């Protein structure tokens, strides 16, 4: 099966990981990015999307079996052509934010729609499948904290390091709230507490920061299925997070970790995690959203949208047995 990926971020780690896992299952990909430049504090303009439509129509004529559109604003672009089935994956902000009406309208005309949480399914109000992005359990796995601290260049002082793995410019992540929470906790505890804002590092290095941190702090105003939470779980890094997306489900039974609905609860949760000074049991919970499991589920979506089964590499490499007598 050949899939055309339509995306706003061609190098999004969660998307490229999913593609790599699906390639192992016999799917091939071509990627088309929306025109224009984008950054943490700069969005593409409506003109960028409009001038991408002719490219989508032209590319769709080259024989792809499926178009997989990532993010709500790419839905209309994928639907501008009429021949090829469309799978639309929604990321979170495109269901809860100002883009939501476009996402809902596009979803009604797509062959399959994928969201990352039950909360998103309810908010969307359209028949869809819940498949959170998967985490690579080989890349993200527990390592000794002292070793990880040395690797990322954090000193071995008594200070507690609280990880905020997002660009401060991304307003939805609410960096000012994270600063506020850590400042309060630092004032309440004898042990120094530092907010470590990390972004722009290679994805391969993110696991080192998860293992070095005493806790991951998520203060987002909205989410789908935050990848940082799942990656922290895979590294047994305790998580303190706002109740957004599927966080409640992901952290069920994980200790120590806390889901909060107010600043006061975030403060109490972070204090508890730091005072306990333990790694979590999150890796077991992360197995539910391993990249292998989520790739299998996405493959089933592709097959449903196209009405065809994907021949795996193992199947294609197996010699066919011919009928009739065989020479020995």
TrEMBL record:
Domain of life: Archaea
Keyword Transferase assigned: yes
Record Gene3D superfamilies: Glycogen Phosphorylase B (3.40.50.2000)
Keyword Cell membrane in record: no
UniProt-annotated stretches for the region Disordered: 307-328
Protein keywords: Transferase
Glycosyltransferase subfamily 4-like N-terminal domain mapped to chain residues: 45-139
GO molecular-function term, one example from the UniProt record: transferase activity
InterPro entries xrefs: Glyco_trans_4-like_N
Record-linked Pfam families: Glyco_trans_1_4, Glyco_transf_4
Protein's UniProt name: Glycosyltransferase involved in cell wall biosynthesis
